[in-house]
Amino acid sequence: MIGTDIIGRTVRVDCPAKTNLTLYVGAPRAEWGGRHELDTIYCAISVCDTVTATAKAPGTGFSLSIEGAHLGDLASSGSDMRRNHAVLALFAIAKAAGRDPDVGLTITKRIPVGAGLGGGSADAAATLLAVNRLWELDWPLERLSDIAATLGADMPFCLFGGYARGTGFGERLEILAPDGEQARELAAQGFRGHVLVGAYQAQLSTPEVYAAFDHLGTDPAARNHLQRAAISLHPRSGQAIDAAAAAGASHAFLSGSGPSVVAFAPDNPAVRAITDVWKRERLVDRIIVATAPAAPSVSVTQ
Ligand SMILES: C[C@](O)(CO)[C@H](O)COP(=O)(O)OP(=O)(O)OC[C@H]1O[C@@H](n2ccc(N)nc2=O)[C@H](O)[C@@H]1O
Ligand SMILES: Nc1ncnc2c1ncn2[C@@H]1O[C@H](COP(=O)(O)OP(=O)(O)OP(=O)(O)O)[C@@H](O)[C@H]1O
């Protein structure tokens, strides 16, 4: 918890979850620590975690407080604060800036944990954005993105939001301009507007899903090459995808490494039909209603 050594102002960042509209997975590469080559279209969705960063007295170090109704394995006593993605991001930007990490962080979690929605990456990105403002570094997003890429594949995208193409192990980004041709094409295909997220109590470990992918391969017709592997580990996700498609979703698929399911709905009747079938047949544990695309927001609150 934050103690009395808090001084100065607070910066608040609301950072959205990510999903992958397409996720093509290639071979693992030794130079990337065994991570796989990817070609993906990222999309930010308006389920946001809030991170606040407040200056602390010199030499007092960092603090972290996490709140939220669904904290998954972050709530367990074994969850090590120093390995939290937000804290790793704080250490990384402090090192790059040549400063001590004397910052109080709070995270209000709304993005389901271990869910394929990039929640830890969103918190890390939010921390970089918050500390950049708190310390008045004014570094461009590209410089923050270089730091983020050292921490995780999804983290660079979470700094930008919107739509982007990711290559390399996911960290090389081509941002798709909101009014550009590719963004308009995605919108025309139904990848904007209402999104329902089917969330689960269960978590899936990203490395385990990639390992299952190495073993099982993919369904070449799937937009998400990890879908078959994740469904083999969590079959309810597959049932929820099928039911959403039958209930009128324009697109329904596994989010990233799962187990969450994302369903784009063309209109309110489709939102209701998907919600009804998911609830009636208990295909998901929780439904979060959101919109896409979304973007992070930064504000100074004190
Ligand atoms: C599934 C996705 O969320 C899709 O965007 C990402 O590929 C995973 O992104 P992430 O969780 O930020 O990934 P990282 O923290 O960099 O890596 C976690 C683990 O996922 C696996 N991993 C990740 C990215 C990648 N291109 N190939 C991989 O095989 C590796 O086992 C790695 O140790
Ligand atoms: N700030 C954080 N928020 C969520 N998880 C965190 C955080 N810091 C560390 N973690 C750990 O990271 C693991 C993955 O959590 P996260 O919610 O980022 O999963 P994910 O959405 O499946 O990730 P991705 O789709 O990027 O692979 C969890 O086991 C969790 O304990």
UniProtKB/TrEMBL annotation:
Coiled coil: none annotated. The keyword Chloroplast does not apply. GO terms for molecular function: 4-(cytidine 5'-diphospho)-2-C-methyl-D-erythritol kinase activity; ATP binding. It catalyses: 4-CDP-2-C-methyl-D-erythritol + ATP = 4-CDP-2-C-methyl-D-erythritol 2-phosphate + ADP + H(+). Residues 88-162 form the GHMP kinase N-terminal domain. Catalyzes the phosphorylation of the position 2 hydroxy group of 4-diphosphocytidyl-2C-methyl-D-erythritol. This is 4-diphosphocytidyl-2-C-methyl-D-erythritol kinase. The lineage of its organism: Bacteria, Bacillati, Actinomycetota, Actinomycetes, Bifidobacteriales. The gene is ispE.
